[in-house]
Amino acid sequence: MSIWKRTTSLSGQCSTEPFEMWESPDKSRKTFTVHATYGKPIDILSLKLDVLEDFRAQVEHVKKTRSALFSSPEIEIVQACPICNAPAEQSRFSVQIYNARYHECLSCTHRFVINRPGQRALDRFYSEDAPIASTYTDRRTSETRVKQVATPKAQWALAEFERVHGTKPERILDVGAGGGHFVYACHLLGLNADGIELSESSRDYCKRHFEIDLRAEDFLSNDLSLPEYDLITFWGVIEHVAEPVQFLNAARKHLSQHKGMVIAEVPRWECLGTAIQSQWNDSLVRHLNPMGHIHIFSDNSLATAFANASLAPAAVWYFGMDAYEWATQMSYHLDDPSVVEKIKELIPGVQQSLDSARFSDEVVLAAIP
């Protein structure tokens, strides 16, 4: 196995420790000082208004569409771990969600869906499944998403870039920009930011709502012509693509020669959300959703992915929606829609405790060449 080591104290006061020491598993045993942030305050109930309005209907839609997709004859079996390239036949089964089988790579501990739909099946799915893009283009939650999601991410990215390089990034590129919320938040902070997004509906939304034109190019294309960027971000992107390391390599190629940073936010395996959904695996709409997240990263596999793209860890941010997941699943299985409302005041505090203990379902890693 190829396992990174993370050194922290046994004090239990995770949120008061601003730095972690990460040691690479190769022969050099190189150590990296990684700045750590824990938690991100958010009014999750306002942000997930569209889901909470009829969670049961959302569950049934996701269950029906994903189960059909992952039982189609157009399934392809992954032959090697997408992070470390170890043979997939040496992986082991972790959990099945809607006919999709998550496997664990025994070399780097990455979890990936081993039975993926072929490209034609995926194209049909995305053309027929309208809720995919609507999550990030709902006008009712757009202001909340900019204020509570995109702006804190832009501020964190700016602070970490300045901490490492001593200056602000001159040019920022957000890959897989969705509805453009992060690009817009950067503009509000006076930063020069561009975005790339393949979804036409998302680009149209960004143009109408934020008056920003997102680029439509394929980020992996050899013909892509881009200026050099100081900061390149992937907010909830590389868990969707077949080969995450290819995207990190492409980002490395487009970085400034003088200073640069790559940031990626991904779902984590080691979290309360995974524990809950592994038990209630027939009622989920997020996290272990095999259509959205064909990869669920361990901290080890995320560090390995960056290292394989010649990027060294510099900062990490732990936060998540595990407490929200707990509340919605309790509401669903008790068949009592009032549960979420009754315990909503507890959700932020519970989540902060999970984030501080590094038991959250999201992690952001910033790395430099």
What does the model show?
With 369 residues, this protein is α/β, with parallel strands linked by helices. The protein has one domain (5-368): Vaccinia Virus protein VP39 (Rossmann fold), CATH 3.40.50.150. The chain is built from 14 helices and 15 strands. The chain has helices at 44-47, 49-52, 55-69, 119-128, 131-134, 139-165, 181-188, 200-210, 244-254, 272-279, 299-308, 322-333, 338-343, 347-356, and strands at 5-7, 19-23, 31-38, 75-77, 92-97, 100-104, 111-113, 115-117, 172-175, 193-196, 231-235, 261-267, 295-296, 312-319, 362-368. Strands 1-2-3-14-15-12-11-9-10 form a nine-stranded mixed sheet, with helices on both faces. Helix 6 (139-165) packs across helix 7. It is globular. Mean pLDDT is 90; it is low at 132-136.
Q: Strand share of the residues?
A: 15-25%
Number of domains: 1
- If you consult CATH, what is the topology? Rossmann fold
Helix content: 25-40%
Please give the order of strands in the largest beta sheet: 1-2-3-14-15-12-11-9-10
* Text of the CATH class: Alpha Beta
Give the termini separation: 25 Å
Kindly state the mean pLDDT as a whole number? 90
Order of helices and strands: EEEHHHEEEEEHHHEHEHEHEHEHEHHHE
The CATH superfamily is Vaccinia Virus protein VP39
Q: What does the main sheet amount to?
A: 9 strands, mixed
CATH level-two architecture: 3-Layer(aba) Sandwich
Low-confidence stretches: 132-136
Helix count, DSSP H or I runs of 4 or more residues: 14
Which short descriptors sum up this protein?
alpha/beta; Rossmann fold; 9-stranded mixed β-sheet; 14 helices; 38% helix
